[in-house]
Amino acid sequence: MNTKTSFRRYRTLSLLVGGLLLTSCEKDPAKPDPVPDDVEQGPMNPGTHGEGELTEPGQQVRYELATKAGHFYRFSCQEDTLSRCEVRRLDPGTLEPLPPATDMTYEPTYVIWRAAVDETAIVDVRSSRDLQVKVGRYTFDFSETEDAEPNTVQDAISKEVPSDFTGVLNASFPDDVDVFRFSIPTGHILAVRCVGTSGPSNGPSSDIVRADGTVLNTYGYAGPRYGEAALSAENDTGEDLFLRVFTGVKSRPVEGYRCLTADDGVDDHPDALPEATVVTVPSTTDVKFWPEGDVDLLAVDLVEGHTYRVSSIRFPFYAATTVLDAQGTVLAKDLEDPMRLVAEFTAPSTARYFLSLRRARGDGVTLFLYPTDFKYSISDVTP
After folding, report:
1. Prediction pTM value
2. Distance CA 111, CA 221 (A)
3. Yes or no: is domain 273-380 CATH 2.60.120.380?
4. Is the pLDDT of residue 19 over 80?
5. How far apart are CA 153 and CA 32, in angstroms?
6. HSE (side-chain half, CA atoms, 13 Å) at 249
């Protein structure tokens, strides 16, 4: 056999083998990529509970959950040999984390939500990043929850004052808002403090509104605050007031909460110019502020060219002073010296002035002490 004949046979054989391989590829469609081991198969229905396991650091186990529009749901994980697990919910379309979770953060042990549409919800479970050992077994539970407290002022539950009651939030605002009705005398102050039942580090947001939806005051829980109720509002119209309790969109979920309410009586110093409390120079006056949004008004006669010093020391808080004339024109706003917690003002003419006071925070660090009671002093320091 010569070289030329051998080459022709080799080329013919190569073409035959190539054709067979091509035909085989056309007849056998490509197989789908295998599902990762850490994705549970098929949507689970409410009432499902079971066990899971993380076998390597950084692993996430994903669950698909069958949900219906308008219903409330809860997915939780509990430690077994894994010391602590965390959960986050994902957008079913984009698989991006849903607030308050992020790419880096999860929620401790559970998520709660209200389904907007019929869909397959997605959640991930991982070990806490604070753990040294990040593998082990855990249990999980998927359930449908019931909204027991009304969400509107029309259906609000009436409560006595004082009162001590508990409730449960099933989703973040605006999907679940618990509303309660209170009756107190005209001119009296409704004081409310709501905390989470799982511990002092977490609590709900709240506000007080009128029946027409006018918001009188609002408060976002930021930990324990010694010395104040969390939320106050004056019943200036004589109508019932309504407390709304909810979880902020970007806040950690709050399920159980406890609220205590009280009648704090009338405001110690009215807010209107004609009703302002008259003080003299020198003098020291007791003032008490609601935690948020309260203003106390004092009236004082000052002499042209004289300089007056005001102070109210409850470090690091103080009563910031805004000076107004008889027509309500602002002459000096929020006088302050945060370091010394005193301020000075020189009267442009001899007349009656009004001192509008609000609680302010000066320089310094405070974790838990938020005083509401101050002694406000005014004196003539003219050289």
Report:
1. 0.77
2. 19
3. yes
4. no
5. 54
6. 3
Q: What is the pLDDT of residues 138-163, one digit of tens each?
A: 999 999 999 989 999 999 999 999 99
Pick the CATH number of 157-266 from 1.10.260.40, 2.160.20.60, 2.60.120.20, 2.60.120.380: 2.60.120.380
> Average pLDDT for residues 306-313, to the nearest whole number?
90
Residue 65, CB-side half-sphere exposure with 13 Å CA sphere: 34
| Phi, then psi, of 239 in degrees rounded to 5 | -90, 170
The domain segmentation of the chain, as residue ranges, is: 48-145, 157-266, 273-380
Nearest C-alpha neighbor of 196 from the set 244, 255, 145, 260: 255
At 64 the three-state DSSP class reads: strand
Mapped onto helix, strand or coil, the DSSP state of residue 20 is helix
Q: How far apart are CA 21 and CA 78, in angstroms?
A: 53
Do you find a cis peptide bond into 162, omega within 30 degrees of 0? Answer: yes
pLDDT category, 258, cuts 50, 70, 90? very high
CA quadruple 342, 346, 352, 356: dihedral, nearest 10: -30
Position 335 confidence tier, pLDDT thresholds 50, 70, 90: confident
**Cβ within 8 Å of residue 24, ≥6 positions away:** none
> Contact at 8 Å (CB) between 178 and 151?
yes
What length does the chain have?
A: 383
Per-residue pLDDT at 380: 97
One-letter-per-residue 3-state SS of 171-218: CCCCCCCEEEEECCCCCEEEEEEEEECCCCCCCCEEEEECCCCCEEEE
Class of CATH domain 48-145: mainly beta
- 268, pLDDT greater than 80: yes
